[in-house]
Amino acid sequence: MHVDNLSMDFIRKLENIQELATLPTVAFRILELVEDPKATMDDISQAVETDPSLTVKILRVANSPLYGFRTEISSVRQAIISLGLNRISNIVVGVALFTKFFNTSARQNVHMREFWRHSTSTGIVAKSLARRLKISFNEREFVGGLIHDIGKMVMIQYFPEQYDAVLSIIRERQVRDVVAEREVFGVDHNVAGRALAKMWQLPADLTDVIASHSTLPELSNARDITAVVRIADLLCEMWGASSEEGILELELERERAWNVLANIRPELQDLDVEVFTFELEQEFKKAELFINLMLGD
Ligand SMILES: [Fe+2]
Ligand SMILES: [Fe+2]
Predict the structure, then answer these.
(1) What is the rounded CA–CA span in Å between residue 47 and residue 273?
(2) CA 136 to centroid of ligand 2, rounded, Å
(3) 19 C-alpha to center of ligand 1: Å?
(4) Which CATH number fits the domain that encloses residue 233?
(5) What is the DSSP string of 7-74?
(6) pTM, full prediction
(7) Domain span including residue 253
(8) Domain count of the chain?
(9) How many whole angstroms from 9 Cα to the centroid of ligand 2?
(10) Distance, CA 280 to ligand 1 centroid (Å)?
């Protein structure tokens, strides 16, 4: 079969999976409200509270050591006051997506567990990297990390046999994930992710993170957040929270994401990579904590 047909086929298959057709209602609504200059704190908190189990999870995260508030946060309103409207909105989107896709059936799949460990770690490391560079994305980098490989997620979840073939190619021939994916699916996870982002009408910056994190093309609008997520992604890949991208060696300073970010944010040069890498273990623990907070009833 011609490669173009194969890739069209795969995207068409994705479009026909009912479960993938729409974002969780709350996430969709929140993304809409964030774009609306007239939206108020009450609009956001009401939108979140329509989903009680989501509300519980948001409060769990807000009260966790991930944010370190001393007084207890007991309502969405209070969480918004403490963390700010934008940060809470992004946390809600992240939690809603995580909960929708890391559902009971997904938890049976070994690759899926590894996948979410990688994704959550990437989100947490991106958060920490942004903080060190004194860049504020209002937790958008956390959501970005959480969903950067969403294209891979659908491959693992809905096409497990083909995904096993991808892994065999990566391991046997020592090629990168994107190369093996193109061979098996006709598209790589960046392209598959872009199709999902389009279906879900995700905002441009998140779409860029999903569609361009492996390559960072010149045209990307959200270059700084995409580069931050990619650097976090690479660190996780190499030091203990891998998604089997097939990278054998990494020299961070030679990576495109690093150079892109160093151009826009010169403070990157001051980052002590060795110390940062050394502290990754702590970041991975925070990622485990996030997963446990989400999975507990
Ligand atoms: Fe990726
Ligand atoms: Fe990744």
Answers:
(1) 40
(2) 21
(3) 22
(4) 1.10.3210.10
(5) HHHHHHHHHT-GGGSS--HHHHHHHHHHH-TT--HHHHHHHHHTSHHHHHHHHHHHHSTTT--SSPP-
(6) 0.94
(7) 3-295
(8) 1
(9) 24
(10) 19
